[in-house]
Write a structure and sequence with these properties.
The structure is a single chain. The chain contains 6 helices and 9 strands, in the order E-H-E-E-E-H-E-E-H-E-H-E-H-E-H. The protein has one domain: Rossmann fold, CATH 3.40.50.1580. The radius of gyration is 17 Å and the shape is globular. Bound molecules: hypoxanthine.
Length: 237
């Protein structure tokens, strides 16, 4: 049995799934870090691979960009495929000179300019959070890997190309570390299904200092983040 967006059979997808925006990044992770890999989804080229990481079954899948795309795929993973844990690995823009390009951000919570939670008809706003057990493992592993990392709040935005008068300062004034486009949906769906979720990001650009990374630097910092995410997936039970 499959879903509208995923042709994998139940059981083809592991209990823990790493998700990255770009499906070809998912292929890169499967090719470089997993053994005995099977491609279990290619609907819309949103590839999902399942393989072995140090004796543990792990899947890695694309999420696409933005809240609606992440919302669809993660909903189906939690609801239909009985996935317990989703770890998003991605990039973000930093709001602060102290959060430098190539640093890692572990997202404790996600603010948003998205209207996605209106579906729940709450009498207020919801604060989507990471799962503490995953956050705790990620903190310990990051420290032992001696990574330059930050744990805190991020912004999930619906907009990549803002109008010229847009300012992120109102978010950074509240301590929000940086911006990406998917975590709010991930944490909201994890809350809905009482499942586990964590987002780990590398800073690809700094909106404050305008510093950017070269593609080689992006690749090597991405690899470090992957090793962290795989270790968290491995230690998650
Ligand atoms: N905005 C939104 N998403 C991002 C950015 C950004 O500046 N950088 C990396 N992902």
């Amino acid at each position: 049995m499959a879903t509208v967006h995923n042709e994998a059979k139940k059981g083809d997808i592991a209990k823990v799934v790493l998700m990255c925006g770009d499906p070809l990044r998912a292929k890169f992770i499967a090719d470089n870090y997993l053994s005995e890999v099977t491609k279990v989804n290619q609907v819309r080229n949103m590839f999902c691979y399942t393989g072995d990481y140090r004796g543990k079954k792990i899947s890695v899948m694309g999420s696409g960009m933005g809240v609606p795309s992440m919302g669809i795929y993660v909903h189906e993973l939690y609801d239909h495929y009985d996935v317990d844990t989703v770890i998003r690995v991605g990039t973000c823009g930093s709001f602060s000179k102290d959060v430098k390009v190539r640093d890692v951000i572990i997202a404790m919570g996600a603010c948003s300019d998205s209207n996605y939670a209106s579906e729940f008809e709450l009498n207020g706003t919801f604060a989507p959070l990471a799962t503490f057990s995953l956050l705790d493992i990620a903190n310990t592993v990051s420290r032992s890997m001696k990574l330059d990392y930050h744990v805190g709040n991020i912004l999930t935005s619906d907009v990549f190309y803002h109008e010229p008068n847009y300012s992120y300062k109102k978010w950074s004034n509240l301590g929000v570390l940086g911006v990406e486009m998917e975590t709010y949906a991930l944490y909201l769906k994890a809350a809905k299904f009482n499942k586990k979720a964590l987002t780990i990001l590398t800073v690809s650009d700094n909106l404050e200092t305008k510093e950017e990374t070269t593609s080689e630097e992006r690749q090597s910092s991405f690899n470090k983040m992957m090793e962290l995410a795989l270790e968290v997936a491995y230690l998650d039970d």
